[in-house]
């Protein structure tokens, strides 16, 4: 059994549209534990739609997704369990910041898991450390006043604090300068190595992902166009 099994997944957007848009087209894919996947493709190829399915945010038009042996069902209570396993950092990290301080923002998820306060604090510190944010310097700052790169780091730390089995990042380098881009890619690589978790890194850029991913999946028109080892491309 693979960690994630995607079987004949199709997603058609139709709500509010005068036509139907097939965003995911009969996609089949297995993802294993501890893989580092670079998911790339042109704009509109279906990357964001696909990863929202992995997180149970969308309902398939047809097909199914099985995570850790359990079928993802948007309408059922297994969504909370799913979100503990699959952490998704959105393309626009602003959507994930809602508390007044960085510490509270990152602690938000773990606090809802019935963990004791010491464990919550431990997770906040360790996930801030993983993205290069020093706890004492940043804990009381407002996440809304940060630069784009720092906002993204806080959003990643918030997801890591849930200690997921899979970390999915949608375009984490968008809008960053080359130095910021290299820093965040380096942090993602070290998160993968230290925490031994599956990473799915979504990007427009083959250059970004070829350096660090162990498996490259190229999407085109809602299908898997290429699935290979970067060293073989
Ligand atoms: P990008 O690289 O620009 O982020 P993407 O690969 O993430 O693109 P998606 O956002 O998944 O692609 O979009 C896939 C297709 O579905 C596109 O044609 C897009 O226009 C369409 N689409 C995405 N979201 C919606 C929506 N909410 N309603 C209707 N169509 C949508
Ligand atoms: Mg996208």
From TrEMBL:
Q: Which GO terms describe its molecular function?
A: ATP binding; ATP hydrolysis activity; ATPase-coupled transmembrane transporter activity
Described by its record, this protein's role is as follows: ATP-binding (A) component of a common energy-coupling factor (ECF) ABC-transporter complex.
What is the protein name stated in its UniProt record?
A: Energy-coupling factor transporter ATP-binding protein EcfA2
Give the main EC class: translocase
GO cellular component terms given for this protein: ATP-binding cassette (ABC) transporter complex
Naturally occurring in which organism (per UniProt): Peptoniphilus faecalis
Compartments where located: Cell membrane
Stated family: Belongs to the ABC transporter superfamily. Energy-coupling factor EcfA family.
Q: Does the keyword Oxidoreductase apply?
A: no
Q: What part of the full protein is here? A: 1 to 233 of 288
- Domain of life according to the entry: Bacteria
Known EC number: 7.-.-.-
The entry describes its oligomerization and partners as:
Forms a stable energy-coupling factor (ECF) transporter complex composed of 2 membrane-embedded substrate-binding proteins (S component), 2 ATP-binding proteins (A component) and 2 transmembrane proteins (T component).
- UniProt domain ABC transporter: residue ranges: 4-233
The way it spans or sits in the membrane comes to: Peripheral membrane protein
Record key words, sorted: ATP-binding, Cell membrane, Membrane, Nucleotide-binding, Translocase, Transport
């Amino acid at each position: 059994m693979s960690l994630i099994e995607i079987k004949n997944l199709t997603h058609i957007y139709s709500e509010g549209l005068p036509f139907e848009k097939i965003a995911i087209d009969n996609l089949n894919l297995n993802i294993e534990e501890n893989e580092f996947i670079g998911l790339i493709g042109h704009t509109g190829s279906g990357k964001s739609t696909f990863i929202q399915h992995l997180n149970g945010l969308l309902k398939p038009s047809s097909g199914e997704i099985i995570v850790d042996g359990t079928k993802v069902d948007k309408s059922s209570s297994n969504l909370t369990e799913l979100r503990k396993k699959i952490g998704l950092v959105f393309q626009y990290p602003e959507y994930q910041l809602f508390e007044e301080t960085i510490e509270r923002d990152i602690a938000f998820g773990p606090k809802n898991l019935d963990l004791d306060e010491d464990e919550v604090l431990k997770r906040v510190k360790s996930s801030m450390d993983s993205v290069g944010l020093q706890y004492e310097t940043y804990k009381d700052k407002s996440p809304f006043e940060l630069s784009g790169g720092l906002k993204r780091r806080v959003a990643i730390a918030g997801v890591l604090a849930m200690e997921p089995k899979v970390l999915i990042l949608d375009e984490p380098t968008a809008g960053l300068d080359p130095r910021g881009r290299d820093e965040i890619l380096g942090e993602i690589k070290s998160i993968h190595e230290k925490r031994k978790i599956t990473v799915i890194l979504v990007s427009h850029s083959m250059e970004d992902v070829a350096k660090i991913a162990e498996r490259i999946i190229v999407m085109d028109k809602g299908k898997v166009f290429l699935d290979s080892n970067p060293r073989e491309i």
